[in-house]
Amino acid sequence: MNNNILTLALGAALGATLAGAPALADQAADREKLIALDKSWGEARDATSLKKLLDPQMIGIAPQGVADRDRQIAIETAPGASAGPYEPADYKVHFIDDDVAIMVHSVRGTEPHYSMHVWEEDDGVWRVVATATTPMAK
């Protein structure tokens, strides 16, 4: 009898844990989607494209300082902003839950740096809600 109760309790706890975790296949697909979105961000050079990727409430840290979405867009579209190739590498994506993921990666090219982004999905659309970059040591 005690074994049956213990088995039922463990089964219920495991079921509750698994029900709250995103499916691995979904995570793999979302991971690839987020990497593709990040690459499109790196290639974007216009405010319209950036507004689609950056949440209106986005906050960020860049070498130029703390930024909201408008300042981030101004930094990225300013005259003299990097026009070189975007060469990201070393992607790591960690899902906090089904609709929030943390991404880190490096970028080679004309402005080598490390980035960390927090992505959030809302109604099937992933957007960056927080970001930070730091230049690579020379």
TrEMBL record:
Signal peptide: 1-25
UniProt entry tagged with the keyword tRNA processing: no
Alphabetically ordered keywords of this record: Signal
Start and end residues of each DUF4440 domain: 44-128
Keyword Signal: yes
SUPFAM superfamilies: NTF2-like
InterPro entries: DUF4440, NTF2-like_dom_sf
Name this polypeptide is given: Nuclear transport factor 2 family protein
